[in-house]
Amino acid sequence: MADFEGISLQTQGLLTSGALLFLRESPEADAKALLDEGVEVEIRHGVRAVVARNVPGSGHDQVADASVVLANRGLDVLTMNGAGRSALAGVDTTAVWWSDEEDRHLVRFSMSLTSTIRFTATVTVLGADGTPAPRSPEPVVSWQESMRYFRMSELTDDLFDAFRNV
Known about the structure:
This protein has helices at 60-80, 146-155, 159-165; strands at residues 3-4, 7-8, 18-22, 31-34, 40-43, 49-53, 94-99, 105-110. With 166 residues, the protein is an alpha+beta fold. It folds into 2 domains: 3-110, no CATH class; 124-166, no CATH class. Strand 5 (40-43) and strand 6 form a beta hairpin. It is elongated, with a radius of gyration of 27 Å.
């Protein structure tokens, strides 16, 4: 039986179309939602993933798109049933499976990675003779009343206060 961290990818022993999507946080409970047309959405305590099974569609794009919509609907139902609040982490990392016209089972894994590169540089300005040129003095900023309002608008979490101060 195919599963991911204890969440079955199959329905009653049959591998139908579906997807595995990652969650922002691990769910607090095991739960399953049954949606229209036999679609099942399942989460498991401690597993940062949701599985949508029996997703309608005949190819990767159809199943992937429908899985996101149906997984969100399932998470809505699970929240209303008291299974805790869960949200998709994004759709850039998924596993999608479906059957083609020849009844072959296909699986596609998708992943997108983001990286940040940081570096520092030091620049020295040289004069015509090759010696370092003297630095220009930093401009003197004198205090002005509006600076307080700008700073306060940057610090607040309240959108109304931010606009009011700006």
